[in-house]
Amino acid sequence: MINIKKERSKIFKSIVKVGVGITIAATMVTVTTDQIVNAASTKKTVTAVKATKAQTVNLILKPRATSQLSNYIEQTVTPGNANYRKYLTPKQFAAKYGQTNGTVSTISKYFKKYKIKTSAYSGNVVLKLTGQTKNIEKAFNVKLNNVKVTGDSYQKANRTPKLPQRINSKVLGIFGLNNNTYTNPGKSLSARLSKEQSDINTYQGAPQKFMDTYNAGALYKDNHVGTGQTIGIISFAKFKPSDATKFWKSEGIPAKANRIKTYQIGSSSYSGEDETAMDVEQAGAVAPKANINVYVSNPSASGMINSLSTAVAQNKVSTLSISWGQSENQVKNQIKKGMLPANYNQIVNLLFQQAAAQGISIFASTGDNGAYDGMGENRYPQLTVDTPANSPYVTAVGGTTLPRNYTINGKSYSVTTERAWSSDFLYPKFDNQPSLSPSKNPVGWVNSYFAGSGGGFSTLNAVPSYQAGFSGVGTFRASKIWEYGGGYLNRLNNAQTVTGTATGRNLPDVSANADPNTGYSSYHNGKWYVTGGTSVVAPQIAGMAAVINSAQGKRMGFWNPQIYRFAKASDSPFTPLNSATNNNNLYYTGQPGKLYNQATGLGTINFGKLNTAFSDQK
After folding, report:
1. Pair 247, 207: CB distance under 8 Å
2. Per the domain annotation, does 11 fall within a domain?
3. Residues 605-618: pLDDT tens digits?
4. Which residue range is the domain that position 263 belongs to?
5. Residues 472-511: b if buried by 16+ CB within 10 A, e if exposed
6. Picking from 124-133, 430-439, 533-542, 599-608, which range would have the lowest pLDDT averaged per residue?
7. Quick check: is 383 in a domain?
8. Exposed e or buried b for every residue in 47-77, given b needs 16+ CB within 10 A?
9. Exposure winner among 319, 364, 509, 546, fewest CB in 10 A?
10. Domains held by the chain: number
11. Which of 30, 42, 44, 43 shows the shortest CA–CA distance to 380?
């Protein structure tokens, strides 16, 4: 059983770190890839990329037997099926669903002629090509240019790449020819706590608070602490492992020594080291005997592809946490600009499918700007959700607020029961804000006011089978305060209650405390911080998944089909937060009488009951 010290003499710095997912997003970390600029003042320069510059390009290969792959994943988590919990190795995946070794060899020979090195990630879905610009250009019949526009800088091919038909017929997509460099990343970091810091000591013993709130102790008392498991962390910034070990030691967590291994997949200049440290600290705190693999690459879609491919091909991790992403609106814009393949969503889902077939449970944070996920990118004020949390093969993790009393401008406000996380009530001074344009209003107050749990409806992914017909899925209740029009969010005089139906994958799937006002401690670069955001919750639940795996003695695999079944049971391990009042993510509210809502998903988890539910599957 973990013995967490409940008192500590540390004095936390009154600095708030709230969420860094990529915005690719979120606590997430928001990396902005393009900004709204005045067209008249926009300056665009185009220069040739240096001929000898080292390039990394990924070929995503078409899978074989796509429908059979979806069926097999479902079979691995269906009790009574002959393939129940019979997960594939990467080599077995390649033999059944990836491209053949012969096809990989043919492609490798083609690029070898151009002095380009080819390596295949195990599974034969992703090929990594490395070579100089001049050779890459010849092989793909393109010219690569550096493009600089006000607020943006990226590499872009001058035309659609061309490959011989025998190769092109096997290719699903190409990454790396066109690639944002993220020279001016914007973080979702602001002082979202009230100015009163007199209760800062309540954040001490933070891991214990998570464990007590969500009944993790039911597993720890039987010494289920992640033994024999490895948790994967996908990140885009380096960090100091000593920060994590310092954190665990200060919290009294009997963590294993030398448990962290970092894989530097690509160069990273992004300054989000605090996010990486927080992810590792939280995952390792709730699963103290698990190992942790950290996959670090450059903050781009290509970096995400290579990190995911590495983790899945190794097949060493049983659970994987992703606290970075971008809004679906951002993805659509990048596809329109030619920065991402048109089938980007299909490609990302394919990698998650391979992970699911191998029994890897993946958890992704849903973002920290509530139902307006694009606000963190300072560009998209419409309702939208975050990717990759939108994938039907990922468990999307949202956020809540724990009970707490507040004094704001001399007035008292009380959160009496756990609710969906949103911070709008903390900022009454913005109540008279008539309209909002992300490009014209200070980012500070935008990120302060629009802080909350991401959630809503995907426009890129259909409703998955495990959500189809589920109570509350496809229907919604919302408190409408803002109305989009003319490029602005315009504030209504009075909040309107809106109900209706919508299509697309619903997210999040589950939620836990993410509000920095009721948040957690974090240690980074010699200082203590109060932290929050959905990217705190993703590694926590990934850590608990590792704990459950250790209790069960095997991987639980793809969570979603299983947890939606559990949620229908009379003794459900989930507590729906379905109140319609004072329970929203800046738009969506609870749905009284329903088991699901787009603010908190199935609700919070009783991990003791969840472990029992996994055990009781027949």
Report:
1. no
2. no
3. 999 999 999 998 86
4. 18-33+186-191+199-616
5. bbbbbbbbebbeeeeebbebeeeeeeeeeebebbbbbbbb
6. 430-439
7. yes
8. eebeeeeebbbbbbbebbeeeebbebbbbbb
9. 509
10. 2
11. 30
